[in-house]
Amino acid sequence: MPHRHTFEERDLFHKVQRQLLSALEEQACLQGNEVNTLGNQNGKRVIVLDTSAFVAGLDPFSTSEDQYTVPAVRGEIPEDSVIGFRFKTAEENGKIKIENPKEENLEKAKKSALEVGDSFFLSETDLQLLALAIELKERGLSPLIATDDYSIQNVAKQIGIEFAPLVTFGIRRRLEWLRYCPACHKTYPAEYKSSNCEVCGTALKRKPLRRNPSEHF
After folding, report:
1. What is the pTM of this model?
2. Which of 17, 38, 73, 215 has its CA 20 to 30 A from that of 47?
3. What would you report as the CA-atom Rg of the chain, rounded to the nearest whole angstrom?
């Protein structure tokens, strides 16, 4: 049954929006330990968003900067949810641009992840986001990845892409992740050092852990 958005939820959207606008206005003054400024500073700033940004409450309508993500992120967001509604609305209104990176840039991301030892901790979606950031930088833009994922941050630093933790955008909630097999449904801890299921060999996916059974993403 479709989720009906209450006045309280709409009010929450506006509160998050005001928080994010304030955070982005202050972003230029942030210290180096909050935003890693390794990217192309001459290009137009654009924001690359991973799944955790949406799950944690980021509202795409809160900033005028162009925002990008990959199709796989859309696939990780439940459609019948508050964030699913928000994401779909933003996509339909052009606030989020969804692109698949080129294969050559995906290979660059994979190579960098292997070099810094994070290849086991990154999902295919994570690698696509990094590849998209590489692609945007090649277009002369200045991409910033908004993420709390330390592996994404580590690889981004390796390839000279800026990143910022979600708290920079007014988001206080930190996410815990669970890796799982979509075929046999076996679960693994986030730090499991393989990209495939030990039972059936299927490529693992991941999802945020819910703090309580009634929590809606």
Report:
1. 0.64
2. 215
3. 17
